[in-house]
Amino acid sequence: MAFSLAVIIMLGLLSDHLFRRFKLPGLVGMLLIGVLAGPYALQLISPEMMKVSGDLRKMALIVILLRAGFELRRDILRQVGRAAMIMSCVPALFEIFGIMLIAPALLNITLLDAAILGCILAAVSPAVVVPLMIDFMDRGRGAKKGIPTLILSASSLDDVFVIVLFTSLLGMHGGQESRFLVQLAEIPVSIIVGIAVGLLTGYCLYRLFCRYNWRPPKRTLVLMGVAITLTWLEDVSREVLPMASLISVMAIGFIILEKSEAIAHIISQKLKKLWVFAELLLFVLVGAQVNIQVALKAGLAGSLVILFGLVFRSAGTYVSLSGTPLTWKEKIFCVVAYIPKATVQAAIGAVPLAAGMASGEVILAVAVLSILLTAPIGAVATQILGEKILDYGDQSPYRFKDLRAKKGLPRVGEMLRNKKTGKMWKVIEEKEIWLKQSAEPARDAERSHPVPAIVQRYWEKGSGTGPGTGKTQFLQYSPDDPAFENQWEIIYDW
Questions:
Q1: CA–CA distance from 11 to each of 7, 38, 45, 47 (Å)?
Q2: pLDDT tens digit string along 316-348?
Q3: Which one of 1, 56, 239, 241 has the minimum C-beta count within 10 Å?
Q4: In this structure, how many other beta carbons lie within 10 angstroms of the beta carbon of residue 170?
């Protein structure tokens, strides 16, 4: 298993580097490497690694969903909330309907089997979509209309809706028709419970992190442990109270960001570094689940079913965006971004076969083929269209985020030590401003755009009667100013 991990790391990093050099998403390279190195091709990944791949992929998915939660601002969610709710179900229903129309004739399966296949194919892959959207958000692309946030939140809800619908239809195939309406009612219940549990958990973590000034890695590990526990809780409470744990995970990040942007920023930066390794595990292992021989069995008929379903899905996505301020080009971007399929298809594609369905092998073949066709093409198309279509204003608020990361700046409330004097200070105030000119006059002629700068106020601990009284100082950080760590270091309790 150790060698398998080495293969995932080395080949995953190599493929990521090569694809990025050609301006393509690195995750596509990782997926393809996973297919080649997996047990159905070169067999470089051991069976022992494949046995635990489900848990590893879930942990990696938790990392990216936590990062997604730390990007969900209330004002943007309010702006895109209605469209996100509609996109969480309408495109999937369109795709399922399209597949029910064509699959019985092309694949020689029953209408119910076609509906089950439609549910499997209709799930968009958060593992593919969310990292792309976070990358756009990190660079301020589409920030004005909240397009990445719209797709990010809708794709997570989409999975909950489709998986519950799949479970209901599978139960009907086993003769449990009476449970159908009950299981459909579980969709809103699981979403509401998931959000409520996530918000409550996130608030408790926020209070804990406020009381104890732990180092960022320890806060991140506590957060990861809690998030993994929530996914376990979903499994054990399924029969009593359904809960969408992945939405709970995102809600944790949302409430911590809402209560303390400083704490959210600190943890998000550590998750960003952890994602480098988690990304390798997720996409290489998802690729390793793909059985090329099984996919080839689907052949032309399976490809036509997938394509026909995508046409209906695209129409549903476009309809979902009616009434929004998005231009037709931005709507086309959303349509394309909603195409990739991977994680859900790999997870539940074989369930009908295991349940003894006569068409189980056909369904599995088409599900695997959908990953091969849509994940690489959808990811590449999303990347290319995003660069061409999504807005990027000169005064995007995300430029402050980039500046903060490059300078390694602290947040309000953190304790600092001056490296020269050894005295303790506390950050008590912060302001983000735009400079019309560069800090260095020689560069003014070269710079026609406004420059972001962050002004912070530090209070010397122990002077005066409290923060803000006694000795304070203001420091400004712009792209031309020295890094924070040249003079200061952040102090933690543990």
A1: 6, 12, 11, 18
A2: 999 999 888 889 999 999 999 999 887 777 777
A3: 239
A4: 21
Determine the Cα–Cα distance for residues 321 and 237; give it in Å rounded to an integer: 35
Q: pLDDT by residue (tens digit) across 242-273?
A: 888 878 888 898 899 888 887 888 888 888 88
Whether residues 323 and 471 fall in one domain: no
If pLDDT is split at 50, 70 and 90, which confidence band does 173 have? low
Between 75 and 309, whose confidence is greater? 309
Would you call 475 helix, strand, or coil by DSSP?
A: strand
Check: CB of residue 344 under 8 Å from CB of residue 167: no
d(CA 493, CA 470): 24
275 and 317 in a single domain? The answer is yes
382 lies in the same domain as 408: no
Q: What is the mean pLDDT of residues 432-453?
A: 65
Question: Are 370 and 458 within one domain?
Answer: no
**Kind of pairing between the strands at 415-418 and 451-460:** unpaired
Residue 282 · residue 61 · CB < 8 Å = yes
Range of the domain at 318: 2-389
Residues 357 and 289 in one domain: yes
Question: Looking at residue 136, which CATH number applies to its domain?
Answer: 1.20.1530.20
Number of domains in the chain: 2
Phi, psi of 25, rounded to the nearest 5 degrees = -60, 130
Q: Which pLDDT score, from 0 to 100, does residue 446 have? A: 45
- Tell me the backbone φ, ψ of residue 459, rounded to 5 degrees: -115, 130
CB 288 within 8 A of CB 35: yes
Angstrom distances, CA of residue 12 to CA of 3, 18, 27, 273? 13, 10, 9, 16
> Distance between the two ends of the chain, CA-based, in angstroms?
34
- Tell me, yes or no, whether 382 and 431 share the same domain: no
| Distance from C-alpha of 30 to C-alpha of 11, rounded to nearest angstrom | 8
Decide which of 389, 418, 453 is a domain's last residue. 389
Point out the domain boundary residue: 331, 362, 389. Answer: 389
67 and 20 within one domain: yes
Dihedral angle over CA of 175, 178, 183, 188, nearest 10: 160
Give yes or no for a contact between 201 and 248, defined as CB atoms under 8 angstroms apart: yes
